[in-house]
Design goal:
It is a single chain. By secondary structure, the chain is an alpha+beta fold. It has a domain at 56-168: Immunoglobulin-like, CATH 2.60.40.730. The protein has four helices and seven strands, in the order αααβββββββα. The chain has helices at residues 3-30, 38-46, 72-75, 161-168; strands at 78-81, 90-93, 105-112, 117-122, 130-133, 145-151, 155-160. The longest helix has 28 residues, at 3-30. The termini are far apart.
């Protein structure tokens, strides 16, 4: 190998090492408890699994709130069904208490079992957590369809659409 090639290789390795060290320092700054939701800290410190903090579930429900038991009242989607409308057939709302610029709902929608959206609405920080959605192109088998809300701190919460239809008849 030529001397020039070795110098270039050494320089690339030096850059990679510098970036690795810099990124590691940034990660360590982020690991402090300052500025984090106290409920998140409480869960990870008081309820660890044998190998560390709990692994999040892919979604949460009223029946299975997991580590977010005390948040289910404000995170489980509440649905009103409008059978007379051709568009915006359902209204999804949440209790508005406890939401602000650091704790908010990112998205409300209707999804299939593979988490593909039929309809959804993105929300901004501080926006009232509600959306009117359409049931267009929904399959007849409602057991495969869910209404969901995605919280920036407390993950994905769902309600089966079949349950909503039964309640609204």
């Amino acid at each position: 190998m030529s001397k020039c090639y070795m110098k270039k290789l050494y320089l690339i390795l030096l850059i990679i090492l510098s970036l690795t060290l810099f990124c590691g320092q940034q990660d360590n700054k982020d690991k402090g408890d300052k500025g984090k939701d106290p409920s998140l800290l409480e869960v990870s410190k008081q309820n660890p699994t044998p190998t560390g903090p709990r692994t999040p579930m892919s979604e949460y429900t009223e029946e299975a709130p997991g580590e977010w038991e005390k948040f289910k009242e404000t995170h489980v989607p509440q649905i009103e069904y409008f059978s007379e409308r051709s568009q915006n057939n359902i209204k999804v709302v949440l209790k508005a208490e406890g939401y602000d610029n650091s704790h908010y709902i990112e998205r409300i929608g209707i999804m299939d079992r593979d988490k593909r959206d039929f309809d959804s609405k993105a929300l901004k920080r501080g926006q009232v957590p509600q959306a009117e959605l359409t049931l267009k192109d929904i399959p007849e088998d409602l057991s495969t369809v869910k209404v969901y809300v995605k919280c920036n701190l407390h993950d994905l919460w769902t309600v089966p659409l079949s349950k909503v239809k039964e309640l609204s008849k």
